[in-house]
Design brief:
globular, 71% helix, 9 helices, mainly alpha, three-stranded mixed β-sheet
Amino acid sequence: MANSSRVTEFLLLGFSSFGELQPVLFVLFLGLYLIILSGNFTIISVIRLDRSLHTPMYFFLCVLSTSEVFYTIVILPKMLINLLSVLRTLSFISCATQMFFFLGFAVTNCLLLGVMGYDRYTAICQPLRYPVLMSWRVCAQLAATCIVSGFLISLVATTLVFSLPFCGSNRVNHYFCDISPVIRLACAETYINELVIFVCGVLVLVVPLIFICISYGFIVRTILKIPSADGKRKAFSTCASHLIVVIVHYGCASSVYLRPSAKSSSEREKRSRGIWTSRFLPE
């Protein structure tokens, strides 16, 4: 290899190919960032202040919104700075740290959506046992399990990426340190690392999604047994926002991560990631 020196920093190419359009993108993404923050802070504040919303469903929504706030803080501020900056470098440690936290919060969100599906199942299909099945102690344990599991999986994935040698190009064709654009810069065989990450992705995305689908299968069957049309409509309305987020979340996430190889379209990744980053805009 022509350049055998160890990479100590990464250059985030981001949207550099857009040239003079970058200030426009800055305004667009800044507006998006402010909407995401204000929307999620509004959700958190309303849930905390309104005692009638102190239920398991809104508790998990509050945790999800909090996780989403930190998720966007990990990605968007640096991206906004880079849109107006010529110096778009990120140190090796900073890149690894960013990947660890964004993966941690992303995986946590996936797991929380699965838990929220279970909450809807127990509320609609097991209403008499709901107070016991979803007690505050159980809710706290489920939320803590999602967070701890999310960051443990993130630690595994980040370690698998940054344990590889980086001694060639340091140009990351993305606007933050995501797995695929970083791991393709490694100057060693990455098949095993990618395979393990792929398996983790399947566990994180597919298993909760299957669980959600099974839960909603029982939910639909139960709702169809409700005699009144108004009762059916109210039951479906409690699940609508969760279903919309699940569809957008898993659709974009699967297009980015459920591939056994990192050699894929970077531009498609950027579009998918952009949609995924903004998936929790307030309803």
